[in-house]
Design goal:
The chain is mainly alpha-helical. It is built from 7 helices and no strands.
Amino acid sequence: MRVAGGIRPHRNHLLESLRRADRELRHRAVRLSSGPEPEVGELRKSFHDELDEIQAGIVRMAALVTEAVPRATESLLESNLELAQQLITSDDELDYLSVHLEERCHQVLALQSPMAGDLRALSTALRLNAELERSGDLAVNIAKGTRRIYGTRYDATLRGLLVRMSEEACRLVRLAIDSYVDRNAGLAAALDDIDDQLDGLNQDCVQAVFQAHNDGTIDLQAAVQLCLISRYYERIGDHAVNIGERVVYMVTGWLPEHTGSARLKDRQHYQPDDTEEE
């Protein structure tokens, strides 16, 4: 007989379920995606396809620059106002490509998080984009010069120098882009020396302008504008050299600025003792 209010001891252990409630869920991986994840190889291919498209955009911008510069020179020498206006208007295409390319680079940086060489390739593309966009602006400045000194007559010496500067500036841009496409660090590094020829032409052109002004063949306003235009050609060459420096960085990871930075660190590291006897 059981006593009321008492506790009846259970003779056996609690019954266990024949099937585990979690079905060993904790012992295996949990996937929250709704479908199969892309393989690493597919992601890498997609990323490099993006890089190829960005490179193609850079090449397209360079082509527009090398088309614009000789046409701007023609508008200047032939006093062709219609051609000058066409060039000024067509710069909108280069600006559009520049904005689109920059946005594309930022998107890839955000979504792909590239590292090492891939990161340098993207940062280089951003810098080349800026250098080429500025080169296009300089070509527009040459075309605008046509309107400012419309009707100016150029002697054979001055005309020849302007044509040569136009050709040399375009050659430097093409060489710079070739070094970028081919990943040719040697050619990219050589651009600084190649640019010396354009620098020399700039000096010759300025002297020719002064001589023409002294001879009375061009007025003061034309002389000032032609000196500026000569400088525009020279600056296009400088942008090509800058492109070469970024290509060297892309391929090797080294920039000229690194040398100056190292010198600064050395100076900061070496702090001479003021109490040290001379």
